[in-house]
Write a structure and sequence with these properties.
Layout: E1 7-15, H1 21-30, E2 43-52, E3 55-64, H2 71-75, E4 83-89, H3 93-97, H4 99-109, E5 115-121, H5 133-142, E6 146-149, H6 158-174, E7 185-187, H7 189-192, H8 198-204
Parallel strand pairs: 1-3, 1-4, 4-5, 5-6
Antiparallel strand pairs: 1-7, 2-3
Bound molecules: guanosine-5'-triphosphate.
Length: about 210
Amino acid sequence: MSESYDFLFKFLVIGNAGTGKSCLLHQFIEKRFKDESNHTIGVEFGSKIISVVNKMVKLQIWDTAGQERFRSVTRSYYRGAAGALLVYDITSRETYNALTTWLSDARMLASQNIVIILCGNKKDLDADREVTFLEASRFAQENELMFLETSALTGENVEEAFVQCARKILNKIESGRTPPTGLGMTPGPALLQEGRQPWRSALTGEPEGKQS
Ligand SMILES: Nc1nc2c(ncn2[C@@H]2O[C@H](COP(=O)(O)OP(=O)(O)OP(=O)(O)O)[C@@H](O)[C@H]2O)c(=O)[nH]1
């Protein structure tokens, strides 16, 4: 695919060790399950261009280690992120109980405006479930998160999680509720040449002269 895109968003994948963060990223980029996944050391990186609301958006995704011993390293990557997948494992209550800590880190270190989608991963292991869909969706509602249950194994809802998060960021910019600065959003090379407030004209189709 060509490297042409309208926007660049920085994304994080955060959550406890073993919840399937690296497998989710691999499934999203490669469209297949990563058979042998070892613990991430520090951070790993992936990127992909997707089409959202008729715009090409490049996602620059940082897959962080969930293990506590890497926490100081991974925290240094939060800055400037526009979106995040906050991942727990539906078969592990421990990973669900840790969500509040991950959430406050993301809002404190990335931005108050960061758009977060909660992902209850390993949906394919429903028989071993320890966290109900209802409980997690209430948590998501209370904390202003989007929510999906995903499976990095089958691919269910994996693309949707990234796309929904990117769509919400674009909506926030388009509605003017959030200025793009500080949102982890960078206009792509084509838009940069369009002059003032390129993100608005690109999103609304308005001629630039109409903007105040
Ligand atoms: N059944 C099932 N297993 C999964 C799924 N996603 C990941 N796994 C398994 O869960 C284990 C951990 O997956 P990883 O992607 O390495 O987890 P991680 O969150 O990146 O872990 P850290 O890098 O240590 O933070 C691996 O054995 C995967 O095969 C899933 O959706 N379903």
